[in-house]
C-alpha cells in the first residue's frame, strides 16, 4: 500500500479544515433584532442623556455598551407619520402616512417585510398605529384615550368590529383625510410581521383570561384607566400586574424563548404605549420621585410673544397661568415614574436575552416616535404646528453585536429615516431601493465624518394651520408654517437652546431665515415632494 506523503496529508487536512469552516460559516446564525419603541418619550426622561435623578438603568446599560445618538431628530410628526418613517426609511411625503390613522401601504417595503423575506422569524408586540383606528368599536370616533367614561363599555372578543382608516385625498391645500371602512386596527398581523400581539383585541383577551372583565371593557392601547383628570395627581388603576406594558413585555419574552434554539434568526419589535398620556403610571411608580427632586425647566415661563398664535389656542396643552409649580413638578415626576416603569419592563426582556444566551447575538435598538413638551414653554403633551426641541429631538441608542463600542456618543445630525438602513446594514441585509435614509454605520466607525448638513421634519395635519416643515442645521432651526399666514420661527440653538427668542422678524437675521427657507425648498424638490410648488408660495416676508 502506498503511504501518503507528508505534503499530501497536509493538503488533505487543509481541505477538511476548509470544508468544516465553510460549513460552520453557512450554518452560523445571523444576529437577532430587538427593536424597542416607546411613545412620546422626551430626551430628558432617559438617564444616559444627562438626567442624574431619573432611574432608567436598563436603557442606560444599552448606552454604556452601544452608540448613543446625541442629535437624532424624527423625520415626521405625529405618531403614525413618525412610525411610518421609522419602519420604511422614508420621509412623510414618500410613505404617504400624513396623519394619524392613515394606513401604510402594505406593499411598501418596511422592516417587517424585509426581515421576513430574509428568512427571519418576526414578531410585533404593542403599538403600530399604521392600519387605521386604534379604538375600534369605541364611541366618539377614534376614542378619547385619556378620558374614558365608565359608560358605554368597550366591546370585547368577537364584538369588536367596524374597522376604519383614513384615505389620503389630494387637494389644492395639501392632503386631506377621508374616512373609509376597513383596515386592521391593532388587532391583526400586519407590516410583514408573522406573530402579532396588539393593545386592543389581544390585550383585552389577555385581561379576560386573567378574570379581569371590568378592565377588559374599559382599558386598552393608551387607556390605562387614570385615577384622576390631568392637572391632578394620577395613577393607573390597572396596577403593574395588568398594565399593557407588562403584557407586551411578557409576550416579547415568550417570543425570545420560543425561538432561542431555532436555526433561523428572529426579529422582535416591542412597542410601548407609554409614557404617552394619560401620564398615569401604576403605583408605586407614580410617587417614585418626590416633588422636591424635580427641577422646573428653564424655558417654562414663555409668553409666546412673537410666536405663532396657534400655540396659545389649546388650553389643554398651554397650561401656563393655569397651573402652579407643584402641578408642573407633579406632571414631570409622573412622567419620570412612567419612564422608569417602562424601563423595568425593558429590563425584563433584556434579562431574558441574557438568560437564554442571546445577549451577545442580538442587535438592540431603543428609540421613540416623538417627545412631550414636559412643561417647557408652559406646555404639556404634544402641540402641533411648532418645532420645539422637546418634541422632535429624541433619544435613540443602538447596541450592535461584535462592535467594540463602549458607550460611544455620536454628535452628528441624524434622522429617523436613517434608522432602518442602519439596522439592515448592521444585520448584513440588503437595503431597499428608493428610501430616503442612509446608514449611520460609517459615522459609528469614523466619528469625524459629517452625516447630514441638516435634518428635516414634516408635519402635515388635516388643517391648513398645521402644515409645517422644520429644518435644523448645525446652528439654526427654521420652522416653516407653509400653508398658514402665521409667523414662521427661527432660533439660534447655540445661544438660545431653550428656543425662547424667535428671530424670524429680526432684520439682523433676515438673510439667515432666507437661507434656511431655501434649504427647505431645495429639500422638497430633491426628495420629490408632491406639494413642492405649493410649499414655495408662502410669502417669505423677507425683503
Number of domains: 1
CATH architecture: 3-Layer(aba) Sandwich
What is the H level of CATH, i.e. the homologous superfamily? Alkaline Phosphatase, subunit A
Proportion of residues in β-strands: 15-25%
Structural class comes to alpha/beta
Instruction: State the helix count.
Output: 14
CATH class, anyone? Alpha Beta
Question: Low-confidence stretches at least 5 residues in length (pLDDT < 50)?
Answer: 9-27
Distance between the termini: 99 Å
The H/E string reads: HEHEEHHHEEEEHHHEHEHEEHHEEEEHH
Strand order of the largest sheet: 7-4-8-1-9-10-2-11
Count of β-strands? 15
Global outline:
globular
Output the CATH topology.
Alkaline Phosphatase, subunit A
Q: Helical percent range?
A: 25-40%
Radius of gyration: 24 Å
Mean pLDDT: 92
- Tell me the major beta sheet: 8 strands, mixed
Could you explain the architecture of this structure?
The chain has 543 residues and is of the alpha/beta class. It has a single domain, classed as 3-Layer(aba) Sandwich (Alkaline Phosphatase, subunit A). The chain has helices at residues 6-27, 57-64, 79-88, 92-95, 111-117, 201-209, 213-216, 244-258, 325-355, 389-392, 419-426, 441-445, 510-526, 532-536, and strands at residues 32-39, 67-73, 76-77, 121-126, 164-169, 176-181, 195-197, 266-275, 362-368, 397-399, 408-415, 455-460, 467-472, 476-481, 489-492. The strands form three sheets. An eight-stranded mixed beta sheet has the order 7-4-8-1-9-10-2-11, sandwiched between helices. A five-stranded mixed beta sheet has the order 3-12-13-14-15. A two-stranded antiparallel ribbon has the order 5-6. Strand 14 and strand 15 form a beta hairpin. The longest helix is centred in the middle third of the chain and has 31 residues, at 325-355. Mean pLDDT is 92; it is low at 9-27.
Amino acid at each position: 500500500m502506498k503511504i501518503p506523503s507528508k505534503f499530501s496529508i497536509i493538503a488533505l487536512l487543509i481541505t477538511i479544515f476548509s470544508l468544516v469552516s465553510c460549513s460552520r460559516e453557512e450554518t452560523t446564525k445571523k444576529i437577532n433584532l430587538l427593536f424597542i419603541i416607546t411613545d412620546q418619550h422626551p430626551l430628558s426622561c432617559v438617564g444616559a442623556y444627562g438626567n442624574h435623578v431619573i432611574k432608567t438603568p436598563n436603557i442606560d446599560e444599552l448606552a454604556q455598551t452601544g452608540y448613543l445618538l446625541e442629535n437624532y431628530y424624527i423625520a415626521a410628526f405625529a405618531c403614525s407619520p413618525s412610525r411610518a418613517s421609522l419602519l420604511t426609511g422614508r420621509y412623510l411625503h414618500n410613505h404617504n402616512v400624513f396623519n394619524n390613522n392613515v394606513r401604510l401601504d402594505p406593499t411598501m417595503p418596511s422592516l417587517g417585510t424585509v426581515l421576513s423575506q430574509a428568512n427571519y422569524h418576526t414578531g410585533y408586540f404593542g403599538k403600530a398605529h399604521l392600519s387605521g383606528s386604534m379604538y375600534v368599536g369605541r364611541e366618539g370616533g377614534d376614542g378619547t384615550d385619556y378620558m374614558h367614561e365608565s359608560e358605554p363599555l368597550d366591546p370585547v372578543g368577537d364584538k369588536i368590529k367596524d374597522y376604519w382608516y383614513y384615505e389620503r385625498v389630494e387637494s389644492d391645500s395639501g392632503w386631506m383625510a377621508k374616512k373609509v371602512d376597513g383596515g386592521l386596527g391593532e388587532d391583526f398581523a400586519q407590516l410583514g410581521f408573522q406573530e402579532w400581539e396588539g393593545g386592543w383585541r389581544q390585550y383585552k383577551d389577555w385581561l379576560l383570561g386573567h378574570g379581569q372583565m371590568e378592565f377588559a371593557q374599559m382599558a386598552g392601547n393608551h387607556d390605562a384607566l387614570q385615577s384622576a383628570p390631568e392637572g391632578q395627581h394620577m395613577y393607573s388603576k390597572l396596577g403593574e400586574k395588568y398594565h399593557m406594558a407588562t403584557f407586551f413585555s411578557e409576550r416579547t419574552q415568550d417570543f425570545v424563548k420560543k425561538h432561542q434554539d431555532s436555526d433561523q434568526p428572529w426579529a422582535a419589535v416591542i412597542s410601548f404605549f407609554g409614557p404617552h398620556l394619560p401620564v398615569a403610571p401604576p403605583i408605586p411608580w407614580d410617587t417614585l420621585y418626590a416633588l422636591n427632586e424635580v427641577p422646573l425647566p428653564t424655558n417654562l415661563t414663555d409668553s409666546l410673544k412673537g410666536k405663532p398664535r396657534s400655540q396659545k389656542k389649546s388650553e389643554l396643552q398651554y397650561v401656563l397661568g393655569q397651573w402652579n409649580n407643584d402641578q408642573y413638578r407633579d406632571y414631570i415626576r409622573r412622567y419620570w415614574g412612567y419612564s422608569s416603569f417602562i424601563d423595568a419592563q425593558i429590563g425584563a426582556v433584556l434579562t431574558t436575552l441574557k438568560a437564554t444566551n442571546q445577549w451577545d447575538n442580538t442587535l438592540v435598538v431603543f428609540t421613540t416616535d416623538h417627545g412631550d413638551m414636559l412643561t417647557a414653554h408652559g406646555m404639556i403633551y404634544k402641540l402641533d404646528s411648532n418645532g420645539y426641541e422637546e418634541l422632535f429631538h429624541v433619544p435613540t441608542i443602538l447596541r450592535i453585536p461584535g462592535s467594540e463600542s463602549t458607550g460611544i456618543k455620536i454628535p452628528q445630525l441624524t434622522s429617523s429615516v436613517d434608522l432602518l438602513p442602519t439596522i439592515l446594514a448592521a444585520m448584513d441585509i440588503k437595503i431597499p431601493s428608493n428610501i430616503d435614509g442612509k446608514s449611520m454605520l460609517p459615522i459609528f466607525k469614523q466619528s469625524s465624518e459629517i452625516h447630514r448638513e441638516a435634518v428635516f421634519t414634516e408635519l402635515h395635519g388635516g388643517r391648513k394651520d398645521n402644515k409645517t416643515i422644520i429644518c435644523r442645521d448645525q446652528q439654526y432651526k427654521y420652522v416653516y408654517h407653509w400653508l398658514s399666514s402665521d409667523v414662521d420661527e427661527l432660533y439660534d440653538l447655540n445661544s438660545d437652546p431653550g428656543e425662547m427668542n424667535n428671530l424670524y422678524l429680526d432684520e439682523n437675521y433676515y438673510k439667515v431665515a432666507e437661507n434656511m427657507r431655501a434649504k427647505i425648498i431645495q429639500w422638497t424638490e430633491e426628495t420629490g415632494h408632491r406639494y413642492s410648488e405649493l410649499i414655495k408660495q408662502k410669502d417669505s416676508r423677507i425683503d
